[in-house]
């Protein structure tokens, strides 16, 4: 089974796959193409200048287009999806996650391995640095474990560090329920949250490679792997930041476990805020070991900045910046649930100007 809906032809799927592969167009520009063309062969015949006109976008000097090659890749991608049982979720499918559809530049389509229903359930995104303190490792795993037991699925990016520990926590909750470790395990297993890994690579691969066993456990425990890149796609550096917008977009809120200056987790937090999502910081982010890691990272970034290799913004993009702007600090999953119900600004460390919320 390669597509959720059974009333769509292979030709139509190849057309959507062909459009999705055009990396120099954003979501709305790809949608414009689908309104002007109706087959993969008509798309393959267009010149790059015609692509820009049909997509209603300005010409991009670095854009590369080879219609016939694009068509061949789309046909191969569909064949691989069929062979491997990979599901394709189109942007206008009922199964496309509504929260993700609401972000400014959602994926044109998604490739999914595992239970794609998890994508539209109650989710929380858990992110953080790769180099975690012992407190951060425990925090990521425990938070995800408790979230899963409470029926909330955990979204992360399958990277080393916080991502891996968050996925592991949700997986451990599944196996504990299955083994009867948790009370009322039969009921808990039925309502248990799972975990979702958003990949920066083709759906048929795992990056980093050493997390393949973890990816297998995600599938075995009823979770899913998802990517906007089809089978055989080559990993590009920009895929990692693009992946972050999906991690943020699949949930109503993002929890940052631990993140020194310039961490990719803070990019995810920025993307979440830009799309109207809540951002929380775990108290592990400010423990003494985490502070020492942050100081070391900041020192390295200062040296790189002096050499012109990183921007000043990367140094100044810290958890403290978010906290100063009002982001709440939480202790655990239960505290996170309480914070969701509180009035905005209730946990802000900065006094509310004009005492707006007082009588």
Describe this structure in words.
This protein has a 9-stranded mixed beta sheet, sandwiched between helices. The C terminus is likely disordered. The chain is globular, with a radius of gyration of 21 Å. Helices cover 47% and strands 11% of the residues. It is an alpha/beta fold.
List the helices and strands and how they pair.
Blueprint: H1 10-20, H2 27-36, H3 40-44, H4 48-55, H5 67-84, E1 87-90, H6 98-101, E2 109-114, E3 123-127, H7 134-149, E4 153-156, H8 162-178, H9 185-191, E5 195-198, H10 212-220, E6 224-227, H11 238-249, E7 253-256, H12 264-274, E8 278-282, H13 288-306, H14 312-316, H15 319-324, E9 329-330, H16 333-341
Parallel strand pairs: 3-4, 3-7, 4-5, 5-6, 7-8, 8-9
Antiparallel strand pairs: 1-2, 2-6
Helix pairs in contact: 1-5, 7-8, 8-9, 11-12
Chain-averaged pLDDT? 92
Largest sheet, in brief, is: 9 strands, mixed
Give the termini separation: 59 Å
Tell me the β content: 5-15%
Count of DSSP strands: 9
Work out the radius of gyration.
21 Å
Strand line-up across the major sheet: 1-2-6-5-4-3-7-8-9
Tell me the number of helical segments per DSSP (H or I, 4 or more residues long). 16
Which spans have pLDDT < 50 for at least 5 consecutive residues?
351-359
- Class based on secondary structure composition and strand pairing: alpha/beta
Shape, principal axes of CA atoms = globular
Helix content: 40-55%
The SSE string, one letter per element, is HHHHHEHEEHEHHEHEHEHEHHHEH
What oligomeric state do the depicted chains represent? single chain
